[in-house]
Amino acid sequence: MHRILVAVATLGLAACYGTPGPIIDTQGVNMAQYEQDLADCEVYRDEVNTAAGVAKGTAAGAAVGGATGAITGRPGEAAGVGAIWGGARSAQLNDREKDRVVKNCLRGRGYRVLN
Question: Among 13, 53, 86, 114, whose Cα sits 20 to 30 Å from the Cα of 6?
Fold first, then answer.
């Protein structure tokens, strides 16, 4: 059972890195200007506080896992898996938020973002 829980948590961590960057319609776009605008928008992306979100998700996951584990008789193990899962899920949500910031910034600068 422990191995299954660890495998599920690992898959959750792997899912964090699947979000693609912006894809734009390049027709009529000055690519040198786009690269500069993209770099500017990525500065805004860095304002999303990933560490705080992951810490909160880890704590919440540990609490839920510990409570679930208390019912099943394995609170320590479940709390650990819950912490990993909660942290991974929070990291994934923060990555999506960062991508959303970049895409919204590019849209605000007139680019047609396709994804």
Answer: 53
Task: Provide the token pair at 84.
Answer: 């990993």
Contact 40, 105 (CB under 8 A): yes
**What is residue 14's predicted lDDT score, i.e. its pLDDT?**
55
> Is the pTM of the predicted complex or chain greater than 0.70?
no
Q: Name the residue among 92, 91, 88, 68 with its Cα closest to residue 78.
A: 68
Identify the band that residue 91 occupies on the pLDDT scale cut at 50, 70 and 90.
confident
Residue type at position 72: T
Q: What does the domain layout of the chain look like in residue ranges?
A: 2-108
E strands within 16-105? none
